Queue: 4 jobs
Job 1
Amino acid sequence: MAAKPVKVSQLNSYIRRVLQTDPLLRNISVTGEISNIKYHDSGHVYFTMKDDGGRVNCFLPRDVLPHIRYELTDGMEIVAYGYISVYERGGYYSLNIRDIDVEGQGSLSIAYEKLREKLAGEGLFSEEHKKPIPGFPEKIAVVTSPTGAAVRDIIKIITSRNDFTDILIYPVLVQGPGAAPEIAAALDDINKKFPETDTVILGRGGGSAEELWAFNEEIVARSIFDSAIPVISAVGHETDFTIADFAADARAETPSAAAVMAVPDTSELKTYVKSVAEGMNDILLSHIRRGEEALGYLDPSAFCRTVTGKTDIMSMMAENLKKDIDTLIASKMLAMRERIKVCRNTLENLSPQNIMKKGYCVLKDENGRPVADTCALSQDQTVTIVMAGGEADSKIIEIRRRHDE
């Protein structure tokens, strides 16, 4: 005979107690692909994990979400750590998540791109927020592993290039689940306790994508962005690009390159300063020589010699100029006299008196007007004959006109 019937809520409560008392289900890890992820307004995250043979509902509480290292999205292969819980009212079970790891290179790339797009949209990578790296730092903080090759390379290069800058080593984990919070805390701590620091070098040597992942976490990017001290990111090799590189004020291809970027070479600076000083000395000596020459002109005897010499030269020039002017005036006068003589001869040759002396005369009528043609004469007309020696009156007796052919 069947057991006494139970209510639906009693059944769900019983199943919940059974599942929650199973030691395997209280601490279980599940592998699958994220599907239908939803970020609820309450801050909780709901999604489905699936594989080729099935699926399970998952619940990520809002108080656990800040500790998840990856930006979750559909299609990611993950390992979810948590416990099985039953929602009595709905009658279904879910995997309540305590932590998540990403499986495979493809899922890491998805998480990387998702976070990069999110932070870029918020302006964390904008050039307008980048701070300039100081050219002459007095103090540099190095945030990295205290035992790696990166810290040794950075110290070696800085000390070989610069005998002025102090180095503060701030040791942190650079890989693993606890590395990102430790790196972020180190940046915040340096800003609070060592605000006089000029530059922070954040980095580590090369490694796999999983080993470098701490520098791809949101908490690190936001700490870099919030830092009042300029940050140089130097993670991995030249081909490695992390979220920290985009958030930092400057990126160096390697930790060694970051050390070169962070401090000037004081030996080169000394050589440069020496060359500038020598150039300034040459300029100063040149000014002194010109000053001495100027003072020499102010010496009375030298001044007299100079004035006397200049006076002699000016007198010679004036004498030569006078001679040139006299020669020019004489030449002009001679030319003018010759021209006047020619004009006088021309006028004399054209004078009526001279012409009449040659036997010519002028005939005038009763009104004293010259008679130019026989047509103006009439018989018995009285005319006046003007000659070189005087005048004579005459009467026209006969008019003989010349007829041209």
Note: The CA atoms of residues 215 and 244 lie 5 Å apart.
Job 2
Amino acid sequence: MAPLTGLSVTAAVALRPAVAVAVAGSDPVGLSSADLVFQEMTVPVRYLAVFQSDEASTVGTVTSTNPSDGQTLSVLHPLTGYDGGTSSFISVLDGTKIIDDGYAGHASLYSAGSDGLTVSTAALVAAGPSDAPPPALFSYRLPGAPLATVHETHPTSVKVEVPGQSVEQWNFDARADRWVEMAGGPRMSVANLVVQIVSFKTVYLSRKYGETTQSARVIGTGQVMVFSGTAPGGDGGTAAAGTWTKPGLAAVTNYFDAAHVPMDFVPGPTWIVLAPTGTRTSQAGG
């Protein structure tokens, strides 16, 4: 089983290391091949694309690291590509269990494009060894089984409204059993869409010039809304509200329904929106 998707793969693929790339820009490239994407709702929006069961020849535009990266990626032990960051941000990243393949130390791995740097997952893997991710990052369900034990709904579409950001529109494609982003971000098709409410911390890019940015805090607990695959006999997907918890840097994030029972995802790629308090999700259909 592929550790980041729950899909059947060969033994050799299951043992591959994970590769993570920090990406930004209005037209990101390569995300559709990722097993897992964390969308950090900062200004500008950042993406942490994690690849394991598939590869991408071009991923970009590669952006700088942020303190949230180490918290998010440490449990996956990935070979990590990024382009710069403050010395304190890089120290935070290097203090976790990632393999630092950043541009500063591995410039030959990257290619310069019109919008900035890009990198291939194969180039990052060739740069050095790493451990495989945990055997299973999420709890997966069998065909026909529910997402949640209580309060499950079956929407055909959802809007994600994050303060200060474009409204994201996701529609459920019953034939493909996937959630498809139609507006507000890159065109994506995923098995599971997770809107995870997190706190954000203001961090300095430059104390001298008073430049700051926001960084998501993914250790702790909070509210979550999960949208997953088909409900038996219907055209909609499945959805349920609950809580997330990640007690420490070395722990995986668990997602619980309203009865505090783990939610069971559909095998396939997962998209996680790290969003601030005040984010609204509105469902339609089903």
Note: The chain has two domains: 11-126, 157-284.
Job 3
Amino acid sequence: MIRKIGFAIICLLTTGMYAQDGSVSPYSYFGLGELRSGSTVENQMMGGIGMYADSIHVNLKNPAAYSQLGIQGRDDFGITTYTAGLSYKQTSLKSYTESQTTAVTNLEYLSIGLSIKKGLGVGFGILPYSSVGYNFESLIGTEGSREINQYSGDGGVNKVYMSIGYEFAKNLSLGVTANYNFGRIETLKVQSTEGVLLGSKDERVSRINGVDLNYALNYTPAIDDQHTLFTSLRINTQANLTARNTQRIGSFIGSPSAERFVEEVDLASQGREDTGVTIPTTTTMGLGYGKNMQWFIGVEYSFQKLTDFTNDFLEIDNIVYKDASTFALGGFYTPERNSFGSYFKRVTYRAGLRLEKTGMYVNEKDINNFGITFGLGLPLGNNLSNLNLGFEVGKRGTTSADLIEESYFKVNLGLSLNDQWFRKRKIN
């Protein structure tokens, strides 16, 4: 039955994946767009930390965690874990003079994890890496004769991945994820002057693809019969992607759709038809402690030398990239996992917080992001499957220096469905 439910959900979500708006943030104008969480709802609710691994949940951030999938203590029992997530994000955008509220619904991930045998697991799936979705304008000069620059963009980068995790020594697991990145980013700049019908436009399209690898090493020694220390080191290697670019420039009369003279730019002669996009290495270290299957608390620190980011085709003048970093704290508590008398004692309660220095330095201002997360893991059926409901409130950016402050509220819904896929036949 769970297989049928999981298959129906995957088909439904895949249908909607290509219709999503992705982002409504003006900060998706920079880099490759607004970076998505890249983790399951369970991890997002704990501030986004990715060191924790158990036998019934997929961990998209930590490939070494696949080594723990399956029923603990049984070599002949295979488990398939289907997981999918959706999000609804409402954002209030505020400048120094005005404000507005907008919202977007997105697919967060589709994934399947398989326990091959005790200590060995694999997984594969698809998830968005970044989303582009902005529409804003800047005014220069005095009223009546101002120059109007309008900027809009959409698209983003997705990734298809395959992971393997193996416990090669007691309490020591190694994992690797191979990501294939692909996507399309479209941008449009329209320039006009008040009182003048003639204007100009610049359309650019980048088709992006390439591969990167994510390595993870987990060490989880038992402190005593019930408590475990969790340590993790993850390295997402530098992604050297390729962008195939096209550009159209021209003029219009009255409306950008009323094109007058528009021509393709010969990017090949300029050496810009095929350009590189470099996403620097991200290193994450984590430390946590918990009581087996009852509670856990952990901290993680990530850093990235974003000064090495390059995208030669998209020309943006008012940004400088600095080194980026993220501090995250989170955990969970399950009162009594196998309680027969109370359903709420079997519910898992999660919470966390995240402080992110995005590395974007716009108009001489650092763009930081702070979020608080919390939610519930609701058991379904035999307790191996669960429905995860999460919430996040946060703030990014600032209203100074003609910038935008975003206050957001995000609702996450995730399903983790587990089913037996193999059992050795036994003859009595």
Note: The longest helix spans residues 2-17.
Job 4
Amino acid sequence: MEQIYEISARLTEDLNAPLRRYLYDQIAWSDKLIMIKGARGVGKTTMMKQRCKENGSYGVYASLDQLFFNDHTIIELADYHYKHGGTHLYLDEVHRYPRPNWEQELKNIHDSYPSLHVVFTGSSLLHLNSKVADLSRRVAVYDLRGLSFREYLNFTGNYGLEVLSLPDILCNHRTLATKISSQIRVIGEFEKYLKKGYYPFFMDSSEFTYGQRVERLVLSVIDIDIPAITPIEYETQLKLKKLLVVLSEQVPFVPNMTSLSRDVEVTRNQLMKFFTLLSEGAILRTLMDATTQPKRASKPEKILFDNPSVMHALGIIHKTGTVRESFAASMLSFVGELRAAKEGDFLLDRKYLFEVGGKNKSFSQIADKPDSFVIADNIETGIGNKIPIWLLGFMY
């Protein structure tokens, strides 16, 4: 048990991460049981170590993939920590716990140690796992995403830029963009962000090593995270990777399920499951069309990669239009339900219609449509319903 405390002290005391993610101040840390979900690499572990460090000796951090947990349980650690005056327990990567009943153990801790606060992290894939539903009455769940453009700028330049709401951007984008672009060369910074800005580890990576780390991240989702959530065979893992190769050559992609199933050598049902796994693992983003009813099983209308960093890591750097769409979809999906549009690119909350393009993009595809906007790249400021794409990166 002492080894857990030694490792925790070393990891938190040596932590050099003075900047906090947007979610940090939104979490009600006084709650007894908190789950932080998110894709691999977005900073869940760092956030939890930051909080543990603030608790001092009253908190202990443990990664649940440590060998310690092959012979010991979460409850044993909680009991020891509680009896020795601890008040906060931080458990990382719950989906990697080598025992099948982590949710039952957390329930028991919640019910049996009334003054012990537990924070745990898990893969975004846990959305597919019924074990989270079993805890729903007890746990407060938060989702952490990758860095927004606003956060990236604050991390690199300490500008103190504040969050902007979508309504404010739609109505006042020219004033907002003028103010920001007078301080920062936003177009150049935005290009850097698209290449290596979505994952916080960019701060200790060169562009080359950043790309390597993102590629390893993608492979780890398939090789480690997905098997930890749902049983799959090695052959299935290979076909998931093959699907990414096929899509990397075709995105943005309106899928022909028959030809795609043939290319990947799987059935249509298997292919639908692949889309779900890779979407929940934050590798792909699948969008239904505006007419699809909620919960109705249907093929996606459009397939994108989850964020531009994944695209660059997989070598999809020549498709500028797809990179734009990937970024816009990543940011817009944060504030509402995003769907593929028949006219235009995206429909948000079945109300706002967006067409994404370069600086010369016209309104021809969405002319005369209410609440329609052009999201344009390579412009510092917009005019009317034409909005600079980088400003979407200020919504969190």
Note: Residues 29 and 119 are 9 Å apart (CA to CA).
